[in-house]
C-alpha cells in the first residue's frame, strides 16, 4: 500500500493554503463573521470557481471534480487551519452525499450540478441537538432523534399535493443562509414510525430562519422553523433507507472533521510556538524554559499522532477497489490494497476513532495556546481564543470524545464477554 500523497493531492493543499492565506487572514475572518451569513460570499465563490471545492468529491457526470473523500478531507485540513467560515461542511460533506445516495435521477440531475458549482448551498436540518446521533457517530442510529413517533422534532404528513412539514430545528449548520434545506422528519405516526428526508427551498413559504448565537462563530448555525411547509421527499419511499445512508455519510464526515481538527490544532500550536519564541520573562524568551518546552513537545506529539490517524481515516473512508484515475481534472480515486484486504476482521471504525483523537489534540493544542499566550489569549483581538472555541464547539456538536470512543468500541465488540464453563 502506498501511503504517500499524489501530486494532485499535494497541489490541492498548496493552492488552497495560498488562497486562504491571501483571502482569509485574521482581519478578513472577523469581517466575515459579522456579516448576516457568517461567511464571505466572495471567498466562497473563489473556492468554487478557482478550485471546484464544493464539487471536489462529486462525480464528473454531475459537474464535480471526481475526486474521493481523501481529497475532500485534505482540503478541509487547510480550511481548518484558517478556521475559514464557509458552507463547505454543510454543503459538500453532509448534504450533497445524501442527495447523491438517496435522490431520484431527476433530483440528482437538478441539484448536484448546482451544488458542485457553489451556486447553491445546502444544509442538513436534524431535529434538536442530535446531529452526532443522526450520523451514528456516538451511538446506534435508531431514528428516535427525529421525533420519537409522537411529538417534537419535525413531523411530516401526507397532503393532496405531496408532503407537509411542521416543527422546529435548532443548531443547523449554515441553516440560516443555505439555499436548500435537507430536513430529517418523522412520518408514519407511532405505529409505523420512520425517518424520511425532505427537500425544502430556503425561501419557501412557511420557512422562518434566524442565525443563532453560537460558541464558535466561525461555524455559523441557524434556527429553522417549518410552519406547514410544502416539501419534496428525497428519493422515493421504496428506495434506499435513510438511516443507513446517514450513517454512511457519518463515516465520511468523521474523517473530514478529523482532518479539519488536525489542521486547526497544527495552526494553533504553530502560533503558540511563534509566541513563546518572542515573549520574554526574566531576560529570556519563555520558549527557552524547560517546562514550556515539555508542554509544547507533548502537544506536538499528540497533534502528529492525530494527523496520522486522520489521514488513515480519510483513506479508509474512500471506497475500495476503485481504479486510480489521473490526468486533467481527475484525482486519484483508488488505493493500493494490502495483501490481506479481503479479510473481514472486526475492528473499531477508523473514522470515529480518528475524530476522537483529533478533537482531543485540538483541545490540547488550543488550551496550551491560551495558557502560554497569557491574558491576551482570551481577548477578541487574538486568534487563540477562536481555536479554543472551535475545539469546545466541535466536541459539543460531534462528540464528546469519550462517547465517540465508546461507540467505536461497541461497534467492534471489544468488550464482549463470554461465560466460561468451569
From TrEMBL:
The keyword Protein biosynthesis does not apply. Residues 323-343 are annotated as: Disordered. It holds the Pfam family Acyl-CoA_dh_N. Its cofactor is FAD. SUPFAM superfamilies: Acyl-CoA dehydrogenase C-terminal domain-like (SSF47203), Acyl-CoA dehydrogenase NM domain-like (SSF56645). Residues 255-321 form the Acyl-CoA dehydrogenase/oxidase C-terminal domain. The keyword Flavoprotein applies. It comes from the Bacteria. Keywords: FAD, Flavoprotein, Oxidoreductase. Residues 334-343 have a biased composition (Basic and acidic residues). Signal peptide: none annotated. Residues 6-119 form the Acyl-CoA dehydrogenase/oxidase N-terminal domain. One of its GO terms (molecular function) is acyl-CoA dehydrogenase activity. Belongs to the acyl-CoA dehydrogenase family. This is Acyl-CoA dehydrogenase family protein. It comes from Streptomyces chartreusis.
